[in-house]
Write a structure and sequence with these properties.
Strand content: 25-35%
Mean pLDDT: 80
Distance between the termini: 71 Å
Structural class: alpha+beta
CATH superfamily of the largest domain: Chloramphenicol acetyltransferase-like domain
Low-confidence stretches: 1-5, 98-104, 147-172
Shape: elongated
Oligomer: single chain
Number of strands: 23
CATH architecture of the largest domain: 2-Layer Sandwich
Radius of gyration: 26 Å
Length: about 400
């Protein structure tokens, strides 16, 4: 290989989070064919916890290998950096030249390749590879070309005290014969959707989920929102709900517990997670720390900071993990109520639908009143219906009282 070609660097995906075997390429910070300096941000990737920047390991001209939205395994090549595009292409062509046939019985398999092959139910010995070693990138290429989908995922709980065995999630890949001529070709879920689905399925398997609902007058909340808007401050009812949840959890700390088998854990701080959508529609749960110790204005500021960080793709991993309860509010559509699905290591999730006009009797007259339905989904293996209803009633009392200054 001539000296010019030796300057080409194959950029491989680093291990960002210890538990992530793959990440998703969100976008490029340097265009294809553009120059980059060593250490300059090269691309953005999404892990299971955050958006991270990948710095360029060397300086030179960049050749893209993967498109935004591609799932990339740790160690996978996603770019090349070299003196020119021509030099990179020549280097790649030489590196990809056909290798000599592998003698039967001499093929070895790396640990990464074996783990990925196991996820997809593939015999690694059947994966085409160059040379005598089957590598993870060989399995990834085989999966892409064959359209294979993961058949079984076995996940051991992070805490196993009280749990007799790891959980196994089975994915049925077979399509009934009667449907085969009635549907089109399947498409795969995005990595984010698949991660969310597995996360929720694992959590639901550990809980005994049920829920309780309550209608709450939102007169005071709407009055507060209107007053702020008249003062030129855009606001919604969410901070008031967050404040009420913090007060209720302080009064009823059992909602801040979670159960793993027979072991019960208690969060040391009332950290509240809330469901939020990124610009591309993906769901995340930013966390407001020690919400019970914040004033209403501070809650507004922190909520605004976190949502703007999500919108800009700048949330850190520690800003989307560790909440003791989650709040999910759908108030931009005429939703009466919805029942939330628990996040891992939480016993409850509070949801609220849109505020609606509901007619009530007051002093012998029918009066329209802004009302919302709150639903608390909880683990019946840890809490009972009375405790869940008492928590909602605490929220009701806080939300129907004027938002006094803290």
């Amino acid at each position: 290989m001539n000296p010019a070609r030796e300057k080409v660097v194959a950029v491989r995906m680093p291990q960002i989070n210890v538990n992530d075997e793959q990440v998703t390429l969100v976008g490029w910070r340097v265009g294809n064919g553009e120059s980059v300096e060593a250490g300059q941000p090269l691309a953005e990737v999404e892990t299971s916890k955050s958006i991270d920047e990948i710095p360029a390991p060397a300086g030179g001209v960049v050749r893209h290998v993967a498109e935004p939205g591609t799932a990339l395994g740790v160690g996978a090549v996603f770019a090349y950096i070299g003196p020119s595009l021509e030099a990179i292409d020549a280097w790649v062509a030489e590196a990809n030249a056909p290798a000599a046939p592998v003698r039967p019985g001499t093929r070895r398999v790396t640990t990464g390749a074996a783990n990925m092959a196991r996820r997809y139910g593939i015999d690694p010995a059947s994966v085409p590879a160059r040379g005598e070693m089957v590598r993870r990138e060989d399995v990834e290429r085989f999966v892409r070309e064959s359209g294979a989908m993961a058949a079984t995922t076995a996940i051991a709980p992070r805490h196993t005290t009280g749990d007799s065995a790891p959980l196994t999630l089975m994915v049925d890949k077979s399509l009934p014969a009667a449907l085969r001529d009635k549907v089109g070709e399947p498409v795969a879920l995005s990595d984010h959707q698949w991660a969310v689905a597995q996360h929720l399925a694992r959590t639901r398997a550990r809980l005994i989920p049920t829920h309780v609902a309550m209608d709450v007058s939102m007169e005071q909340a709407t009055a507060w929102v209107d007053a702020r808007r008249k003062a030129g401050v855009m606001a919604g009812s969410l901070p008031l709900v967050f404040r009420a949840v913090g007060k209720a959890l302080k009064d009823q700390p059992r909602l801040a517990l979670f159960r793993l088998g027979r072991s019960v854990y208690t969060y040391r701080s009332i950290d509240l997670a809330f469901a939020a959508r990124a610009r591309d529609g993906r769901l995340f749960t930013p966390v407001i720390r020690a919400v019970d110790k914040l004033t209403l204005d501070q809650i507004v500021e922190e909520y605004t900071r976190l949502t703007m960080g999500l919108f800009r793709g700048q949330l850190r991993a520690d800003e989307i993990s560790g909440g003791c309860i989650t709040v999910s509010i759908i108030d931009q559509q005429p939703v009466l109520y919805h029942v939330g699905l628990h996040n891992a290591y939480q016993s409850a999730i509070l949801t609220m639908g849109a505020i609606r006009e509901q007619v009530v009797w007051s002093n012998g007259q029918a009066v329209p009143r802004p009302t919302a339905t709150l639903v608390l989904a909880y683990d019946h293996g840890l809490l009972d219906g009375w405790e869940a209803a008492a928590f909602l009633d605490h929220l009701r009392k806080t939300l129907t009282a004027p938002p006094a200054a803290d």
